[in-house]
TrEMBL record:
GO terms for molecular function: nucleic acid binding. This is UPF0102 protein C7I36_12050. Signal peptide: none annotated. The lineage of its organism: Bacteria, Pseudomonadati, Pseudomonadota, Gammaproteobacteria, Aeromonadales. Belongs to the UPF0102 family.
Amino acid sequence: MATGSPPGNDKRACGDQFERRAEQYLLGRGLRLEARNYLCRLGEIDLIMRQGDTLVFVEVRYRKNSRFGGAAASVTAAKQQRLRRAASCYLQMKGLNEARQSCRFDLVACEGDLIHWIPNAF
């Protein structure tokens, strides 16, 4: 009988590793962690952080290299829409008014060993 991890676990473990790296990177730049892997019926947000009064919804993407467009290019319009909807759910759950709460969507693109932080990416 063959042993090993079920399909998909290696990918999830890799994703978790880069999310933790991104979190540490952002913490080192003064952001504060609010939540990790926020999940609702409309989507998932990798990291929710705060910078001053601004709530920052962070998408973390990893690619081994930029040969096929890189990590930043992998965030499609459909993915952006899912993130916006999930962020709206988070704000409602926390009782925050979308019109009054300053928010932005950042991208942390990891390519190889490099980390690129793109504030207000979309």
